[in-house]
Amino acid sequence: MKRELVYMDAKSSKFWNIELSGNSHTVTFGRIGTNGQSATKTFPTEEAARKDMEKLIKEKLGKGYVDAAGSGTSATGAAPSTDGLIPLIAFSSINHREEISRNAGTFIGKRVVDYDPEKPAKPDVIYRFRGDYDENNTVENLQQFIASDAASGTTALVIGAWHGDDAELSPEDVIEVLVKGKDRLSNLAAIYVGDITSEENEMSWINQCDLSPLLKAFPKLQLLRSRGGQGLALSSPQHENLRGLAMETGGMDVSVVRSVCISNFPNLEYLELWLGTDEYGANFSVPDLQPILSGRLFPKLKYLGLRNSQQADDIAGVIVNSPIASRIETLDLSLGVLTDEGANALLKLSSPTLKKLNLHYNYFSPEVIKQLKALPLTVDASKPSGMEEEDEWRFVAVGE
Amino acid sequence: MNGALSQSANSCRLGLIGNPENRRIRDFQAAANALGYATPPCLSYEELLRDPESLARFDVELIRIDSPGENQAVAKALIQRVGGPGNAELTFGEIGFLKEYHRGFCGVLDIIEQRGIPCINPPCDIAVMFDKWKCHQRFVEHDVPRPVSELAPADVPSLREHMRARRSGRVFLKPLHGSSASGVCALRWTAQHQQLIAPLRIQTAREQAILVNSLDVRTYTTMADIELILGLLLPHGMIMEQWIPKLTLPEGAVDLRVLVIGGEARHWVVRQSRHPMTNLHLGNQRGDEAALLEHIGTANLEAAFRVAEKAAACFPDSLYAGVDVLIDSRHRALVGEINAFGDLLPRLTHRGESAYSAIAKACHTRFCAI
């Protein structure tokens, strides 16, 4: 008996395999793409070995590991398969709050490397372009890269703090350079505009811009991810092949919510919206999300994340009975102000398709957590360290 | 020369000047004992300030000057010494009278200098190390990599105007004569937002707002708070430095404290934080050296050590100094600051020696032994 699991987040891509053989099991684990290391453990009886294996698998699933086969990836690598599709698990942005304070270690499951204009660019590397405090050459570096031979082979790009020391600068110039270079970036499948940590610039201060020129310029795009809500727009929300859309904000403007709700993304499997708080510009109301919840908009949706929301309880309340809940495999209401009220709604979830519920960062009582864990789903109801149980102020994970 | 040094004819009587109740003194004495040296006597700042003649009676041949900090009575005496308010009613932990405190301390350093006994770190070096602007200028003269810095304007509107003119939305502000992150602010603002991150609280005392040091790093986001804080701090004199986003490892942003002894980078510690301030007493943790090494590579780490040594070499007469080294996102090293009393690194060893043990040995090598 054998089970192969994988894990991906902004920090790392890992595999964990276990194989049962008589009264022992062998665990092999490590970074995806490496051979990893193995450990064999022997038990007095076959039954004991099997039980231990099951216990370990349950632990791993609880930590966010998923079956390799189902996720379209394996221990040997998360590179796009023969059909060029990025595995869905590799779309995930950050799982836990702590990850917001560091730059992406991986993107679409592969390691991110800061672009170095002094070194020859390689096609199989995912580069991050960002401005320095002493010299903001984001645009120049990007132009240099696009002019290089590596450009045509590259599948993903990460744009970091494009603004250098001037926090008010939007990424318009960066987008323009990318769009101009579209013919040289013919294999681009994933773009992340805004890999910016809070030390580089607070999320709600980041000046974004209209990202839809990227949709138009890159027909092979599968994933568009962004961070920052100020000035964010999707003026022309349509794309035949887009499979993932993730927009992280500290407060999402109603115009962006509406753009998503009138969008034409027929192949969208992954939708992640960080909705934020009214203090930082969230001015929509929960009924504005109705077109998403109705299930008609994105027939192929497997993952829905309505995260970092002050209104998480209300969203939980309407989502349990919505058609979308019976379509998707993962529901993610993490990082928001989720209390027992929202949890009590979620306890009524009855979905034939749902496998996973991410409720990390919450204000749940221990009793409610126990009830949630009894659901026939993989439930992450963890809290980051230092989150007081009796917090007087209830706040989303990333407000500022 | 082996570890257990005997009191040879060449040994010299070492004395300490410090606050005897402080662990710095106790730990150094213990380290000296463990090496087989006699316990170095300690002249307290309190006594020295009450009776300067006590220094004349301090019968030693070599002096190690330690920190006057963490002692309220000493702080008051230093401030009064230079004509500060005779009854400087400092609330515990209050950030105030920074100039007076500094001038008072420099006066004490002068007294020690005049006594003519050699010091492990000469008083004039210590005085410069406690002046961030002088330090900065010295570093720049010697090509030590530093964040771009200048003296901050003395009021908030000028500061804002100055930053706007430079299209810089973010700076680190440090009191010219502060220590241990006291009064240090990370400031950033845009047209819509503002934020000041600092280990301090606003309190009311003597019917006015005062600032007190806080062990937790706080974020102030209203213009009223920020203007109040800067309005109180800027008149003390501040240096404004470019805010360098620190290298971020999985567990947080990091920088290095490197203890340079006798020109060589020795003990070092990764300081890790979720805030822009990594000082270890602010609830931050020592980070994982292996993780840092894996992240930046041996060559960059060695380069950081060389930068620390270069900073310490700006003070050739000082046996040791603690250098804070920033690593930027491209893994280049810059000097944050140099600390005359940056040797309090408990439980840290290098080549099997604690920091104090290494310093005690090094001073016998340089000053006393043949």
Written account of the structure:
Chain A has ten helices and 17 strands. Chain A has 400 residues and is α/β, with parallel strands linked by helices. Chain A folds into two domains: 2-67, WGR domain (q64v53_bacfr protein fold, Single Sheet), CATH 2.20.140; 84-380, Leucine-rich repeat, LRR (right-handed beta-alpha superhelix) (Alpha-Beta Horseshoe), CATH 3.80.10. The longest helix of chain A has 17 residues, at 46-62. The mean pLDDT of chain A is 90. Chain B contains eleven helices and 17 strands. Chain B is globular, with a radius of gyration of 21 Å. The longest helix of chain B has 24 residues, at 289-312. In chain B, 48% of the residues are buried. Chain B has three domains: 14-129, no CATH class; 149-242, no CATH class; 245-339, D-amino Acid Aminotransferase, Chain A, domain 1 (2-Layer Sandwich), CATH 3.30.470. The A-B interface holds A 11, 101-103, 105, 114, 116, 130, 132-134, 161, 165-168, 197, 199-200, 202, 204-205, 230, 400 and B 147-148, 167-170, 188, 190-193, 195, 219, 221, 242-246, 248-250, 252-253, 274, 276, 328-330.
Strand-helix topology:
The complex is a heterodimer of chains A (400) and B (370).
Chain A: E1 2-8, E2 13-21, E3 24-31, E4 37-42, H1 46-62, E5 66-67, H2 68-71, E6 106-107, E7 110-114, E8 126-129, H3 138-147, E9 156-159, H4 172-180, E10 190-193, H5 212-217, E11 223-227, E12 244-248, H6 254-261, E13 270-276, H7 290-293, E14 303-309, H8 312-319, E15 330-332, H9 340-346, E16 356-358, H10 366-373, E17 378-380
Parallel strand pairs in A: 7-8, 8-9, 9-10, 10-11, 11-12, 12-13, 13-14, 14-15, 15-16, 16-17
Antiparallel strand pairs in A: 1-2, 1-5, 2-3, 3-4, 6-7
Chain B: E1 14-18, H1 23-34, E2 42-44, H2 45-50, H3 54-57, E3 62-65, H4 72-81, H5 98-115, H6 123-129, H7 132-141, E4 149-151, H8 156-165, E5 170-175, E6 185-189, E7 194-205, E8 208-220, H9 223-233, E9 238-242, E10 248-249, E11 252-261, E12 264-273, E13 285-286, H10 289-312, E14 320-327, E15 333-339, E16 349-350, E17 353-354, H11 355-368
